[in-house]
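Team,

Forwarding the record for the chain on the shared tracking sheet. I've put the sequence and predicted structure together so nobody has to dig through attachments.
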Amino acid sequence: MKVVLIQLPLRASAATQNWARIRCALERRPLELHTEDVVVLPELLDLRPERAAYEESVSGLARDLGCHVVGGSHYERRGDAKLNSGVVAHPSGRIVGRYEKQRPYGTASDQVMAGATPGELTIAGRRVLVVVCADFWFSDVFQRLAALPDLVLVPACSVTRKPTPRFARALWRHMAVARAYEYGTFVAISDWARASSLPGAPGAVAGFADPTRTEPRQFFSAVGREGLAAHVLDFAALDRFRADRSERRFLWHPASRESIARPWEAPMSLVQRFLAYAAAFEQAFHSDDWSVVEPFFTEDAVYHVALDPPFGGYFEGRAAILAYFKDVLDRLDRRFETRKGELLEAPRLEGERVVIRGRVVYRAPGVPDAVVEVEEIAHFTGDRIRQLEDRYAPETRDQISEYLAEHGGKLGIH
């Protein structure tokens, strides 16, 4: 996998020209891009009011390049408010990921609502996290993750109050290296060039942090004057780096407080595999492409959902399980405006099975929040799930029935 970073002279008031400049720069470089590669665009490169135009520009670039594109960000209208958010496009042009800026910076916080969703997705079997600019500076964003990312992508629009960008660049360089080393991940940042037209002075902080390097001067590679840089990601080296740090009791796991305190006591192989499945599930929920979930199940897998039909049942075979996922999400989850999953306790490894307790919070206008607690148990054969169970307490099943009886009609749930 390659990651391509951008730092070109752009104009805040010229979205069409920005897209043309980016395309021209990419076409001039013989990058030999493939489907697993990722191009990262800067934050707020497109300030047109039409969301559809922005998303089509991201999708069109991904189709033309034949790789994934992380589309910087755009001001998305949510009723009377606006949100700084972006999309990730598959090489086919399909949108496969969405992300929101959780902490609007400076005066923007008076005009832009805070988002809630970082971009967690899987590309070529690797976990990818997209965080927008200032969010990268807050460790709680990482602490809420279910699994460590292999690659952190940061669309930025950095500004500085200093007469030169040296101060901002030094801070971002040190933060990128620290994040890369603490979380055992690659960090890639795209930004606006110093000569860009912005309300503030651009910091031009784009670059790539690699924790596997042993020469300190190679920990961070800034994007040069050409405004574009490509980096090949050596995940084998990253896996060795993580294994070495784990062996020395020095690798931080965001999945649980227990693993933070005693990572050497928490066998993570199947737990991490389950969390990778959970990330793929969320990706499929947004894209409706369930092929990314298929590799996590054996062909003869079974799934028991301890709820009454039509939302529960017993499903035999991988194809039946994937069909159920799509069906129940269409008929239930997608009837709400948002859904958010939360862990209630650390994942437990019990022999060849992983046990997770969590809850899902569903929200929609005009109805109260629906909160569903569940215990999920995944039995593995090798690295694939052969049996999956969703267990609900009797009072939870009653609450689900009562909620649907009272509010299901308003949501179109029958």
